[in-house]
Amino acid sequence: MRVLAGLLVFVACAGAGAQTLTVGSKRFTESYVLGEIVSQTAKGTHKPGLGNTAILLEALKAGAIDVYPEYTGTIAREILKSEDRLDLAALNAKLKPLGLAASIPLGFSNSYALGMRRKDAERLGIRKVSDLAQHPAQRFGLSHEFLGRRDGWPGLQGAYGLPQKPRGLDHGIAYEALAAGEIDVMDLYTTDAKIERYAIVALDDDRKFFPPYDAVLLYRAEVPQRFPREFALLGKLESTIDAQTMVRLNARAEIDKVSFADVAREYLGSGAQARKGLWAALFAPDFGRLLAEHLGLVFGSLAIAALIGIPLGMLAARVPGLAQPVLIATGLLQTIPALALLALLIPVTGTIGVWPALIALFLYALLPITRNTHTGITEVRRGLVDAGTALGLSRRRVLVHVELPLALPVIMAGVKTAAVISVGTATIAAFIGAGGFGERITQGLALNDHTMLLAGALPAAVLALVVHAAFELAERALSKR
């Protein structure tokens, strides 16, 4: 119990950030790199790879982060829902009611574009986006955020009358899919480092659909007053990163496989560490922190799920009319995709990180615990229950001394299943800044870095085996008692 209490205290405290500037970033290379440059410059903390614009915006509004790198076109189209081409002053006038502000232009623009293999574009005579309307057989693979943005596929399809039906692909692997011939067209960022490496041509936006995407910092309006020293340091970044520099920084991460933090250190003159092999990546200095965060999420959510799920399963077993509603309700929770549930919980909890992750994992753990508790108790032979009653035991004592001991193996199997599932599901919580080994997995996906992916996936897999074995031992010990 003391260990469990400690884990719960850790989980509770993990959401409370210190009074330091908190920097967020999206889940693509350039945002990771800029997030590291901003956080290292301001001596702040970085919550990397938090997902798409909608998640970062909610985190900013809720105060879970203070600042993140954004682009003027995204602010205008996606955040302010404006079709106008707004300069920085106009953007700030419209951001003011939201309690937000944008400034410190970094010095480069990174626009969206559609790209094809150069040899295919030349063979088919496709030079402009409008040419694609005459080639409906072209297979589009677009990033999930681009598919849903106002300044992404919905608007682009309408502006150009494109007949294709795209599939969603993570931006980190779309280049490899294009090179392998699995798709023909992808969305690009014009400062992507892999454009030249994979011999890709960016098609001309001949109808000028995409607005300017100048890189700026988007932050809570209170930040200059709350963090005056840090904000003054950030001001030194203004107009210091041109497009060629950004391409080079992206290449250091994507092609040379240098960590985002080290790319930022190189740019800021601190120097990078040597590239790590798998063993060094596995047991990097962040291993202890990631393990503690992962365990806190798993056992914190599991404890709450057991405290609620076991009584709920007992109630469903005792009151037959409640059985199906309870089991159906807990079952329906399993049908909600994890990322969608996490995104929905951000505005509900008013924060990112631990709390929405903890609630999501708790909801996913309810079904196996509740169902197994219900099954275990209902399968106790009626004759044994009647024998206990005949001996003068009260209904509560029959439950405690007859039904629960006999149902214990089935209940423990449900808890064990929930624990193992939670270990795997907890990796997704890194997409909203909850930490754990998923943090390495998200960075590995962004870079298509197999070493980083394995450095996150292997400890999570081993942890699942250890948790399974621990519950096996606990079940045997309880059964003997």
Architecture overview:
By secondary structure, the chain is an alpha/beta fold. 60% of the residues lie in helices and 8% in strands. The chain is built from 23 helices and ten strands. The strands form three sheets. A five-stranded mixed sheet has the order 7-6-8-5-9. The chain has a three-stranded antiparallel sheet with strand order 3-10-4. Strand 1 (22-24), helix 2 and strand 2 form a beta-alpha-beta unit. The chain is elongated, with a radius of gyration of 26 Å. 47% of the residues are buried.
Sheet with the most strands: spatial strand order: 7-6-8-5-9
Q: Which structural class matches the secondary elements?
A: alpha/beta
Shape: elongated
Described by strand count, sense and barrel closure, the largest sheet is: 5 strands, mixed
Report the radius of gyration as a whole number of Å.
26 Å
Mean model confidence by pLDDT: 87
Residues in helices, as a percent range = 55-70%
Ends apart, CA distance between termini: 18 Å
Beta-strand percentage range: 5-15%
Annotation keywords:
single chain; 481 residues; alpha/beta; five-stranded mixed β-sheet; three-stranded antiparallel β-sheet; 23 helices; 60% helix; disordered N terminus
Give a brief outline of the structure.
The chain is α/β, with parallel strands linked by helices. Helix content is 60%, strand content 8%. The chain is elongated.
